[in-house]
Amino acid sequence: MGYIKSAALEETGYVVLDRYNQELDPKEWLDIEYNDWKSSGDTRFAPLASAFGEIECNGFWNHTPPRTDKDGVWIDSQTAKAPNLTRRAQEPGANVGRCRVIELQPNTYADCLYNLHQDDNNRLNPDGTGWVVRGFFNLTDDKDSYFVLRENRTDPSVEYRIALPAGAQLIVDTQRLWHAATHPGPDPRYCLITSWTSGPELDAYIEKYNGKAHVPNVEVPQELLDAGQAEQSRRLAARAAALAAQGKAEWLVMSEA
Question: Does residue 1 fall inside a structural domain?
Fold first, then answer.
């Protein structure tokens, strides 16, 4: 039967929506409670919706009963402090699974490439239902930062680099694309991440905000790209060797970014 997917994401695996006027909203992400949850760098997460409405960040399949990343329960103590972020996550009208704010400490392009990962959004997702994708709404004005998307983790020939000013809005099939953020800093980057179920509601939302499957890549000096690729190869080889010495295989999917 196959999953219900958004045609807008078929070509590149992502769309960039019209920019949001973030300056009009208060900095609600500074008031909510964070969980010291590590993923794709030095991170913390502040959940607005979770499996059972508790301040925790685990995948829904790690609960009892286990289920896919759908039907998240809003956390009253968090949404009361972040009504605008909650409104934005709910605006598409699509089913929401996990919804949380990520706090990412400064990193480098090489760090980003090493942390590239795919998510496990659709574990236990029944065939014939909507495919789970993720929205990324950048909250801080990170003019020198960019999201890196690749079809292949270690192949730079297809690499999308999406700028992350305040109000940047992306929807990404993060189970298809390897992804992570390059954030030079100096301050932490904050971003609202929402798991949405694909379907007519999400399609209408993408159309309303003029989703584009192609935007200009952030320009990065070739020597920095080359150095980052070399460092990614070095770190991955070192990690594989360390795991092999322990008799373990590498688990590539982080599923929590």
Answer: no
Token pair belonging to 63:
């609960």
Domain presence at residue 253:
no
For residue 251, CA distances in Å to 112, 119, 140, 148, 254 come to 17, 12, 31, 20, 8
The domain spanning residue 31 has which CATH number? 2.60.120.330
Pairing state between β 73-74 and 43-50: antiparallel
| Total count of domains within the chain | 1
With CA atoms as reference, report the closest residue to 253 among 200, 177, 184: 177
Domain interval for residue 225: 7-245
| Helix ranges, the chain (H) | 76-79, 83-90, 109-114, 200-208, 222-245
> What sign has the CA pseudo-torsion 149, 151, 155, 157?
negative
Q: How many CA atoms lie within 13 A of 130 on its CB side?
A: 21
Token representation of residue 19: 């920019």
Q: Is residue 72 a part of any domain in this protein?
A: yes
Asked if 15 and 8 count as a contact pair (C-beta separation under 8 A), the reply is yes
Side chain identity at 151, as an amino acid letter? Answer: E
Q: Hey, how many other C-beta atoms are within 10 angstroms of the C-beta on 94?
A: 26
pLDDT tens figures, 57-100: 999 999 999 999 999 999 999 999 999 999 999 999 999 999 99
Which tens digit of pLDDT belongs to each residue from 167-197? 999 999 999 999 999 999 999 999 999 999 9
